[in-house]
């Protein structure tokens, strides 16, 4: 009985163990099946996820091909006005371009009256006139002007310019040899004669353009006094006289303006430098030719014809080009159906056909 009981107990325990093992095995199989399904599900989901990521990357890459980039606005650099060195007095044109220029105070023909329009550096722009507003000492003849000796021959740099009203400006100046020496100058754009300066860059332009060259010049544009000897200069045939420009200077007895000193052999005289900036006379023909050009014209048209041009004469058969050189640009040109031109000059008609003068007549 006891043995049976023990055997039954052992059998019962083995059965219980076997059942537990089966249950564990069943549970393990179920779990494996479940995990496999889960893994399968996860594997499918991972594929989907990967596809979604790939699609997103493709979309991002496609969209990245067209993008927006911020571009900084270009820097606007202030354009400094350029001074026209072919001019000395600019009038109302581009006045601000005087800034930075060096101005030479030229001599005056009446020094006892001194210089007008130079004012103290601390002057109120609205109150620039008065006997106590001028720069330096009083002139001999006017309490409103600056003494001649206080300014003549000085070089000033234009530091800045203030527009005062419609036609006047205030130039703020510093002495190039003494920075403590400063003043103002009242610039009037309407009156050239009130500008007492020679702009250094203009002087350099004239010197570099003309000095050292040779010219044939109409005689009456030259001074008829030799500036070295004081003797009178008489020239019978200007077409045979070659003048060499030796230097550019301020001539004392010539309104203190710039002039070219010209030489021919033992003769030395001068000619207005400003006049040389335009080779044509006012309402007239050419008054000078560079030597090389003159020689070329003589070779082409002959010395007799070119001498007539230099003497402001015309003749039948003269080429139309030389008519311009001799008498200058006409007031107007009338044309006819026959192909003839009528050049209208002051008190003269000149008729041109096929490029040559055919006749002329005077009128009142």
Descriptive notes:
The chain is built from 5 helices and 15 strands. With 364 residues, the protein is α+β, with helices and mostly antiparallel strands. Among the domains are: 95-198, no CATH class; 211-277, no CATH class; 294-362, Beta-lactamase Inhibitory Protein, Chain:B, domain 1, CATH 3.30.1450. α3 (291-301) packs across α4. Residues 1-15, 27-32 and 34-41 have low confidence and may be disordered.
N-to-C span: 176 Å
Residue fraction in strands: 15-25%
Low-confidence stretches: 1-15, 27-32, 34-41
Tally of contiguous helical segments? 5
Structural class: alpha+beta
Nearest-integer average pLDDT: 80
The whole-angstrom Rg is 49 Å
Biggest pleated-sheet summary: 6 strands, antiparallel
- The helix content, as a percent range, equals 25-40%
Question: Could you state the order of secondary-structure elements as H and E?
Answer: HEEEEEEHEEEEEHHHEEEE
What's this entry about, in short?
The chain is α+β, with helices and mostly antiparallel strands. It is built from 5 helices and 15 strands.
Descriptors for this entry?
single chain; 364 residues; alpha+beta; Beta-lactamase Inhibitory Protein, Chain:B, domain 1; six-stranded antiparallel sheet; five-stranded antiparallel sheet; 15 strands; extended; disordered N terminus
Which helices and strands appear, and what pairs or packs with what?
Elements: H1 2-64, E1 102-105, E2 118-120, E3 155-163, E4 168-175, E5 178-188, E6 197-199, H2 200-210, E7 214-217, E8 243-250, E9 258-264, E10 267-272, E11 288-290, H3 291-301, H4 303-310, H5 320-327, E12 332-335, E13 340-345, E14 348-353, E15 356-362
Antiparallel strand pairs: 1-3, 1-6, 2-5, 3-4, 4-5, 7-8, 7-11, 8-9, 9-10, 12-13, 13-14, 14-15
């Amino acid at each position: 009985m006891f043995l049976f009981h023990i055997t039954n107990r052992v059998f019962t325990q083995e059965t219980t163990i076997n059942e537990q093992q089966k249950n564990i095995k069943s549970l393990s199989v179920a779990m494996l099946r479940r995990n496999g399904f889960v893994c399968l599900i996860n594997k499918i989901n991972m594929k989907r996820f990967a596809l979604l990521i790939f699609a997103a990357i493709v979309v991002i890459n496609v969209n990245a091909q067209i993008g927006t980039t911020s571009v900084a606005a270009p820097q606007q650099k202030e354009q400094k006005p350029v001074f026209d060195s072919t001019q000395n007095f600019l009038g109302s044109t581009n006045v601000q371009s005087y800034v930075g220029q060096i101005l030479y105070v030229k001599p005056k023909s009446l020094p006892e009256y001194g210089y007008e329009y130079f004012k103290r550096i601390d002057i109120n722009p609205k109150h620039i006139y008065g006997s106590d507003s001028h720069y330096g000492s009083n002139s001999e003849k006017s309490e409103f002007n600056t003494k001649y000796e206080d300014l003549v021959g000085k070089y000033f740099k234009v530091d800045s310019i203030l527009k005062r009203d419609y036609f006047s400006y205030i130039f703020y100046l510093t002495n190039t040899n003494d920075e403590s020496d400063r003043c103002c100058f009242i610039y009037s754009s309407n009156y050239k004669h009130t500008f007492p300066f020679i702009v250094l860059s203009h002087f350099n332009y004239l010197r570099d353009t003309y000095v050292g060259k040779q010219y044939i010049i109409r005689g009456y544009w030259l001074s008829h006094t030799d500036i070295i000897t004081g003797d009178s200069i008489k020239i019978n045939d200007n077409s045979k006289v070659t003048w060499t420009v030796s230097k550019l200077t301020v001539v004392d007895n010539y309104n203190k303006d710039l002039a070219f000193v010209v030489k021919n052999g033992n003769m030395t005289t001068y000619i207005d430098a400003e006049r040389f900036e335009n080779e044509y006379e006012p309402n007239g023909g050419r008054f000078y030719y560079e030597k090389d050009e003159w020689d070329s014209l003589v070779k082409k048209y002959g010395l007799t014809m070119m001498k007539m041009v230099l003497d402001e004469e015309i003749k039948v058969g003269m080429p139309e080009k030389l008519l311009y050189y001799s008498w200058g640009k006409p007031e107007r040109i009338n044309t006819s159906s026959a192909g003839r031109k009528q050049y209208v000059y002051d008190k003269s008609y000149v008729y041109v056909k096929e490029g040559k003068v055919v006749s002329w007549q005077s009128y009142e």
